[in-house]
Here is the input.
Amino acid sequence: MTTQEPDLMLDSSAAGLLGHIGSRAGDRLGRVRPFAPRAARRAADGAPALIAVGHGSRDPRAAATLRLLADRVRELRPGLDVRLAHIELNEPLLADTLAGLSGDAVLVPLLFARGHHVTLDLPAAAAAAPAGTRVLIAGPLGPHPLLVEALADRLAEAGWTPRDGASPGTGVVLAAAGSRAPESAADTRRIAARLGERLGGVPVLAAYASAAGPTVPEAVRALAARGRHRIAVASCFTAPGLFATRAAAHAPWLAAAPLGPHPALARLILHRYDETTAMSLTGTRELTAAIR
Here is the structure.
């Protein structure tokens, strides 16, 4: 699977605080272009590398899709060292990418809600980075207006129209990977609520492919019980994989594609990178995962 969970620092209290700071900053800065000329100049002048970290999947389409997403990020920020790594299942693995670092880096998880991959897996990998290397860990991609933009666009590509948002018979299930961490479910519900607002007030229920409930079929039944029988499934996944395929198979009506190299998602990755480096530079919060 390619989209699982996320969060921030080495200790859980710092992770929770930074997740809160990151989501609030994202709310206020969601429409700031992350590839402004000043940022581009910094990128060409020794900025930390951006390492986009996917979960990994046995589906061969997943790694190929994430490579396209990384390419789009590079196009938006010429001169920035942008690398792709995976937690498991696909190469390059994050541990290998970090081992090859010759300078500082920011890990941007290609994950949408807080969970153990960022609070445990990413800090553990960062702690094994080369001596003297500073590795920062950005927050998850959601909740954020740019994520909602990408989700709404994928639904529109699948056939959703503005008229559907005003219909009393339509509903949406937001399919996500799922996590046992309560913070993850809270983040996903916030994404669902914002997507509903973006679609004109249509009810959007969060559902999960693993580790949490409701499942996609359960959410579909819940919407049907409310008289919503034209139900679309929005795919809160970065790339094709087992979870995304299963979720789409349960769509009674429309099934949106995974977000893939959507322009808004690429902009969001750069936004997370920029806010993390800015916090480090201003001393707002010490984000260093490992300095030895």
Notes: The CA atoms of residues 253 and 289 lie 45 Å apart.
